[in-house]
């Protein structure tokens, strides 16, 4: 390419010739930029959701095409966030579609140095067995003064801010039924 050809295609020169000093008009466009469009344009469904990152509950719009998420944006109709998302909420799309997201249960055997994939059912069974074993081993019918307590201090729970009121209610019911008294949520800390 000759030097003069490159110079005449230079965007600043196009802007000056067209009087587009801010570079916001057609002079800023390229062949590639003219073919770009929002990922939301090709969506076949849009569902309302709530951001999973904290207890604020910002509204999100989840755009899908053929059952796959194509974009996640703030919901302008949300009375809480009015279409705005913090950096964590704005990154939800990458969180749910990112190639580095772990999609399998990983388990490292006691004393092991490597992680191995195990089925979800096996992991859930391991958790249930360990909860029962710990509860049985640390169960107290009475405290040191003889007061009836029916509890275990061997298990505690610290919930995350992504849990909603209904989930926290169910967790509290489950743990109370198990005799777990150390139940807290990080939103209070």
TrEMBL record:
Signal peptide: none annotated. Its cofactor is [4Fe-4S] cluster. It is found in: Cell envelope. GO terms for cellular component: cell envelope. The keyword Oxidoreductase applies. One of its GO terms (molecular function) is 4 iron, 4 sulfur cluster binding. It holds the Pfam family Molybdop_Fe4S4. It comes from the Bacteria. Residues 44-100 form the 4Fe-4S Mo/W bis-MGD-type domain. Keywords: 4Fe-4S, Iron, Iron-sulfur, Metal-binding, Oxidoreductase. GO terms for biological process: anaerobic respiration. Its main location: other. The keyword 4Fe-4S applies. SUPFAM superfamilies: Formate dehydrogenase/DMSO reductase, domains 1-3. Belongs to the prokaryotic molybdopterin-containing oxidoreductase family. This is Formate dehydrogenase O alpha subunit protein. It comes from Hyalangium minutum. The lineage of its organism: Bacteria, Pseudomonadati, Myxococcota, Myxococcia, Myxococcales.
